[in-house]
Amino acid sequence: MTALQTAPPPVETAGEGPAPRPRQMIAAVGAAGSSAVSRLISIPVRSAATTGRAVILLGQVLRYAVIDSVTLRLPFGETIVQAWTLLRVTALPAILMAIPFGAMVAVQLSGLVNEVGANSLVGSATGVAVLRQGAPVTAGLLMGGAAASAIASDFGARAIREELDAMRVLGIDPVRRLVVPRFLALLLITPILVTVVIAMGVGAAFLIATLVNDVTPGSFWLSFGSFAKMVDLWFTMGKGLAFATIVAIISCQRGMEAKDGPRGVADAVNASVVLNVILIVLVNLAITQLQTMFFPMAVA
After folding, report:
1. What's the CA gap between 31 and 25, in Å, rounded?
2. pLDDT per residue as tens digits for the range 90-143
3. What is the crossing angle of helices 180-211 and 76-115, to 10°?
4. Distance between CA 233 and CA 229 in Å, rounded?
């Protein structure tokens, strides 16, 4: 009995173990919170660094393009091959996107103009929609999707195989040898894509308007020519060239900075496509606002 009375209760010894657990949990939560905060702070820093590298790459590409064109050191054969390769992956999707877009614009607007008895205005609305917005945005999205994927995957594969490092060791600048031809190739195919989209979109709208909505061909083309002006075409080509520049720089940069094997290549392709689409939409909005301010729509 005395031994049982003098023995220490097990509660006291058991209570000493769990005491530090709340402090450990608080420390773990604090460490996780500080890590999350540091990651959030590092996002704008890394974004600014990426933007700076893209601007530097753009400057190098423009410098090499001008110097090599003047000194006839530009690889014209590689440029033509890349232009044909990129045109093959974008021409057919451009046609397939332009036809439904023009038909959709004609179908949607025909119901509205029929309510006010102005069927002839279908041509003018089609010209404004396809020429000002549809053609450059469609061409830009195609370049930012199909062309960007091809360029980023090519550079990403070269990066993980250390081909770019090998070229630098041999004294060959990858920007001069690989980036400049792809940049010029995109600039070469941009007018072709824009022209194809305009022709297919307006042609589809014309067929819908004349065959379905009983609009006379003469009134369609008269209203189209009254609102569509040459300045709209120049702005459309300018938008396309701006989009081509964005796609070339972003895709080449993300591909050249790919790491961690095939997964890094896939991440580079995804990042290039997403960034290209976002920048194309923002740049299109800015250029459209400038066009509306200085060249408002009016009857030609």
Report:
1. 10
2. 989 888 888 888 888 888 777 777 676 666 677 777 777 888 888 999 999 989
3. 30
4. 7
Contact between 20 and 216 under an 8 Å Cβ cutoff? The reply is no
What's the token pair of residue 90?
């974008």
Q: In whole angstroms, give the CA distance from residue 190 to residue 38.
A: 42
Cα–Cα dist 179/249, whole Å: 8
Backbone φ and ψ of 229, nearest 5°: -120, 165
Q: What length is written for the chain?
A: 300
Q: Taking the model in full, what pTM does it have?
A: 0.83
Residue 4 has pLDDT above 50, yes or no: no
CB 82 within 8 A of CB 102: no
Cα–chain-centroid distance for residue 239? 13
Q: What is the per-residue DSSP string for 22-54?
A: HHHHHHHHHHHHHHHHHHHHHHHHHHHHHHHHH
3-state secondary structure of 284: helix
> Distance of CA 135 to CAs 32, 107, 285, Å?
48, 18, 14
Nearest to 160 by CA among 270, 80, 260: 260
Distance CA 288, CA 239 (A): 9
Closest CA to 183 of 78, 254, 50: 78
**Tokens representing 192?**
């072709």
Is 27 a residue whose pLDDT tops 80?
no
**DSSP for residue 120:** G
